[in-house]
């Protein structure tokens, strides 16, 4: 739970992840060719020889049929319909030869123009026109931070943190001490962490991050007593040297090439090492772990509390390696947690121990198109955060560093034990420190840390959030901007 910070001395060039951009595929629909039908040949059932031709039949052309070879000669009681056929004038066949603009039997894709001509409609309306009002460009919601920190809730993630999409390659080492020898096998201890940690990231990232753990199943015997390492983890360099010593011991048999992060698991019976922090490196010789020519800026050690927290401990610590701050306030009386029970970065043991929707967005696990960036009164339909599809988050920015967020939390997946489903309304403030003992908390759930229920509303500054109604698919939330 504890984490260590070392602030880079300079601003680093923020990188722009190409994966961040919205993958709006809707605009390409018209260019997609129809699926060719699969030709089954040979020995399969021949029954479907009588099937109609499975070609992509174009729709009948509803244009005025040219005077072709078979111009009908309609009788006195008939007229020539739109499609060239003869239809009874007494109306006994109202669908005969109707134009696509006809009220009955016509096509919704056609309409009369200003001249009374029946023409095809130009384009489909926007699929969600009701959301255009009050929605602004997503860039207004991409919060910044005045001076870049080693971890933060700014949209652009801190330099040297782990890539948040794709594979994250992590070596796992096992260490004991001169005065405390391991009593379990490395396999037994590893099973506390894996596969729970891998499953967590696959679920929370909607499949976008794959955690690959490479355990080196050997107890590495460190050169000092457990208490020495308990002290060492309290400083950045002490902690780095702890991890580096384990890496050096393993280096002859472990290839660190291409490795993103190193986890050193202390034997859990070393109670002197009470907890395990995250090493937040900053690059270069001083700010890295080094092996096989690799400069590795993210590392974690475990302590005796591993057996208490179980497989959700590493997802909390790796959250820091991804750039996420703590969301608890150890040093603030009466404010133990800012977001519990809704975030693992607050309380590993909570009833809904995942990452908040905002955090998932800045980790590029949600697309920009799944965020409504709001600047006027509007109504949004939020789908549960635990499922991949749909609009996930309403964000109302007050400034470039401060916003209100709303998301839907249901008893699904890691939220299954949630006592109260509903709309979680919370503040994000990148200038409010990084949790733990630092600052007032960069994220805080409003409404006394309770989810808003249908029919309830709350007001923060000039924003009133009303939970209008809920369905199996989504929660309908009205955001009112008060002048
Ligand atoms: Zn932490």
Topology:
Layout: E1 78-80, E2 86-88, E3 110-112, E4 118-120, E5 166-176, H1 186-193, H2 196-204, E6 209-221, H3 226-232, H4 236-250, E7 261-266, E8 278-280, E9 289-291, E10 294-296, E11 298-301, H5 306-309, H6 313-321, H7 357-362, E12 371-373, E13 378-382, E14 393-399, E15 402-409, E16 422-429, E17 443-445, H8 446-449, E18 457-460, E19 463-470, E20 475-481
Parallel strand pairs: 5-6, 5-7, 7-11, 12-14
Antiparallel strand pairs: 1-2, 3-4, 8-11, 9-10, 13-20, 14-15, 15-16, 16-17, 18-19, 19-20
Zinc ion binds at residues 1, 3, 316, 320, 326.
Describe this structure in words.
By secondary structure, the protein is an alpha+beta fold. The protein folds into three domains: 69-124, no CATH class; 128-149 and 325-483, no CATH class; 159-322, Collagenase (Catalytic Domain) (3-Layer(aba) Sandwich). The protein contains eight helices and 20 strands. It has helices at residues 186-193, 196-204, 226-232, 236-250, 306-309, 313-321, 357-362, 446-449, and strands spanning 78-80, 86-88, 110-112, 118-120, 166-176, 209-221, 261-266, 278-280, 289-291, 294-296, 298-301, 371-373, 378-382, 393-399, 402-409, 422-429, 443-445, 457-460, 463-470, 475-481. The chain has a five-stranded mixed beta sheet with strand order 6-5-7-11-8, sandwiched between helices. The chain is elongated. The two termini are 42 Å apart. The model is unreliable at 1-70 (pLDDT under 50). Zinc ion binds next to α6.
* Total helical segments: 8
Broad shape: elongated
| Low-confidence sequence ranges | 1-70
Largest sheet: 5 strands, mixed
Structural class: alpha+beta
- DSSP, total strands: 20
Q: What number is the mean pLDDT?
A: 83
| Attached small molecules | zinc ion
Give the strand line-up of the largest sheet. Answer: 6-5-7-11-8
How many structural domains in the coordinates? Answer: 3
C-alpha end-to-end distance: 42 Å
Our estimate of the beta-strand percent is 15-25%
Approximate helicity band: 10-25%
Radius of gyration: 30 Å
Order of helices and strands: EEEEEHHEHHEEEEEHHHEEEEEEHEEE
